[in-house]
Design brief:
The complex is a heterodimer of chains A (about 500) and B (about 90). Chain A is an alpha/beta fold. Chain A folds into 3 domains: about 210 residues, Nitrogenase molybdenum iron protein domain (Rossmann fold); about 140 residues, Rossmann fold (3-Layer(aba) Sandwich); about 110 residues, 3-Layer(aba) Sandwich (Rossmann fold). Chain A is built from 21 helices and 14 strands. In chain A, the strands form 3 sheets. Chain A has a 6-stranded mixed β-sheet, sandwiched between helices. A 4-stranded parallel β-sheet of chain A has the order 3-2-4-5, with helices on both faces. In chain A, α12 links the parallel β8 and β9. The longest helix of chain A is centred in the last third of the chain and has 29 residues. Chain B has a single domain, classed as NifT/FixU-like (OB fold (Dihydrolipoamide Acetyltransferase, E2P), Beta Barrel), CATH 2.40.50. Chain B has a 6-stranded antiparallel barrel. Chain B is globular and about 30 Å long. The chains are: A alpha/beta (about 500), B mainly beta (about 90). Chains A and B meet through α12 and α17 of A and β3 of B.
Chain lengths: ~500, ~90
């Protein structure tokens, strides 16, 4: 099927909205838009970061998910207590594949679940005593941990526990960083506020810990911010930053440590990958410490080269020179990947619905393979995300914010993309519909996808999914309509 | 009984004269950028009323429409800076 025109896309949106009651229809209409590159500000065409409608299925998370799962969770040498009932921590444990180096349970803890396991009596009498007790237990059982963070679940905010007081006291007793995070799940409309709260907690309890202390710095100190090392992403990015002659002094927060976070204010440049979840802290460091920050994109060779040159522009000629050397060295390798996979993927159309930075960042990687992204949307994006997306997307393509299960299904049925990229909850629906699908939250158990090395894996994965012979076997043999001659020959 | 000042109307009246924390920073090309975290509004500043070392601030006009006012003050030694701003005229 060819690409839809503007009018066709418009009528498609209207058709999909038809099933809703009047009020819901009016609300949802604001979240669906047709991309128009001439618009500079997204608020003129799309509304985002609003409460989801009751009664529709969306795939958003909560503030606790944004803080415990995304920002704090991957910091490997801290213990993150899921403070409240046991479920929130247990069912979100270790699902995100933030790789790290270390011995889990001895000096690293990112895959484990620590919880205060609230019972009725803790709700009635308060859980502060229990929290203090488990902090002592942690110190006894896991003496090599470097700090504790208290990730509040909903009841904490409702019963009014004073986790700040407990944390301050424990920090003194243990002589380690103890960070209370007020990321109760009911705050905000999605996990996005959880990112903000987590950023603010880092700002208030971590960032200034080493102010005024000595640090052996070089003029080439940079940090990687907002890379969660999914399937090893941050490692694949770090490699050629180091080849360029830069020194990566901190990784946030994939494979990150509390010491790295405390040292971040000593950097010369903050490199920001996930704008949505970490722009707050980057803006704060720019104001307080005068560290510039820069958004970069390490998906696909075109964007990587562009980003590397922009990063190098912050530094002197020696870095710029090495940057060109790095680009030249990887160019033939990347060309080989493109030569191999582009003929197999050329012209295929993709629809994405993911969170964070990917709805716009991976577009370049698909285009490098000759594919086209015909629809994209954010689970929990804000206006500034859509501002950045409009320029990346083609004209008359579909934008959908906080899309509901029903809407996405209808869009896919009508647009008939060759590939859908979304989360695990969508995966099996679309595969059963016979549409190739990649789970793009944690790279479908593959990865890394960042960097030059990641692109090779990305291209292979897309090819593997799209050109899998299984898609031709969706109709059972007894329902196959055979060509007339074959039937005759058999008879 | 009729309320002289219904709570709803009062709420709206407050919203008209909204004061918010904003951050002003420089972009790559040296222009000023306005950022309002509460509303995720990021926009280039097209004009600033006072722009001298001794007096800086006043009315800020945004590229996408909208006007904000910050108390005139001494020019900040370094950008970005967080200041309180009053909304005079919003784009929508």
């Amino acid at each position: 099927m060819s690409t839809l025109t503007r009018e066709e896309t418009e009528s498609l949106i209207q058709e999909v909205l038809e099933v809703y009651p009047e009020k819901a229809k009016k609300d949802r209409a604001k979240h669906l838009a047709i991309n128009d590159q001439s618009i500079e500000q997204s608020k003129k065409c799309i509304t985002s970061n609003r409460k989801s409608l009751p009664g529709v299925m969306t795939i958003r998370g909560c503030a606790y998910a944004g803080s415990r799962g995304v920002v704090w969770g991957p910091i490997k040498d801290m213990i993150h207590i899921s403070h409240g009932p046991v479920g929130c921590g247990q069912y979100s444990r270790a699902g995100r594949r933030n790789y790290y180096v270390g011995t889990t349970g001895v000096n690293t803890f990112a895959e484990m679940n620590f919880t205060s396991d609230f019972q009725e009596k803790d709700i009635v009498f308060g859980g502060d005593k229990k929290l203090a007790k488990i902090m002592n237990e942690i110190e006894g059982l896991f003496p090599l941990h470097k700090g504790i963070s208290v990730q509040s679940e909903c009841p904490i905010g409702l019963i009014g526990d004073d986790i700040e007081a407990v944390s301050k006291k424990a920090a003194k007793e243990l002589n380690k960083v103890v960070v209370p995070v007020r990321c109760e799940g009911f705050r905000g409309v999605s996990q996005s506020l959880g990112h903000h709260i987590a950023n603010d907690a880092i700002r208030d309890w971590v960032l200034s810990n080493r102010d005024g202390k000595e640090f052996e710095s070089t003029p080439y100190d940079v940090t990687i911010i907002g890379d969660y090392n999914i399937g090893g992403d941050a490692w694949a990015s770090r490699i050629f930053l180091e080849e360029m002659g830069l020194r990566v002094i901190a990784q946030w927060s994939g494979d990150g440590t509390i010491a790295e976070m405390e040292n971040t204010p000593k950097a010369k440049l903050n490199l920001l990958h996930c704008y949505r979840s970490m722009n707050y802290i980057s803006r704060h460091m720019e104001e307080k410490y005068g560290i510039p920050w820069m958004e970069y994109n390490f998906f696909g060779p075109t964007k990587i080269e562009e980003s590397l040159r922009r990063i190098a522009a912050f530094f002197d000629d020696s870095i710029k020179e090495k940057c060109e050397l790095v680009i030249a060295r990887y160019k033939p390798m990347m060309q080989a990947v493109i030569d191999k996979f582009k003929p197999r993927l050329q012209g295929k159309r993709v629809m994405l619905y993911i969170g964070g930075l990917r709805p716009r960042h991976v577009i370049g990687a698909y285009e490098d393979l000759g594919m086209e992204v015909v629809g994209t949307g954010y689970e929990f994006g804000h206006n500034d995300d859509y501002d950045r997306t409009i320029q990346e997307m083609g004209n008359a393509t579909l934008l959908y914010d906080d899309v509901t299960g029903f809407e996405l299904e209808e869009f896919v049925k009508r647009i008939k993309p060759d590939l859908v990229g979304s989360g695990i909850k969508e995966k099996y629906i679309y595969q059963k519909m016979g549409i190739p699908f990649r789970q793009m939250h944690s790279w479908d158990y593959s990865g890394p996808y960042h960097g030059f090395d990641g692109f090779a894996i990305f291209a292979r994965d897309m090819d593997m999914t799209l050109n899998n012979p299984c898609w031709g076997k969706q109709v059972p043999p007894w329902k196959l309509v055979k060509p007339a001659e074959e039937v005759k020959a058999a008879a | 009984m009729v309320l002289a000042d219904p709570p709803r109307a009062r709420f709206r009246a407050n919203k008209e004269s909204v004061v918010a924390n904003i951050m002003i920073r420089k972009n790559d090309t040296g222009g000023l950028v306005f950022y309002l975290p509460k509303r995720d509004l990021e926009d280039n500043i097209s004009s600033i009323e006072f722009d001298s070392p001794a007096k800086w601030g006043g009315e800020l006009k945004l590229a996408g429409g909208g006007t904000y006012y910050i108390e005139p003050q001494e020019a900040p030694a370094r950008l970005p800076i967080s200041v309180r701003a009053k909304r005079l005229d919003s784009a929508e």
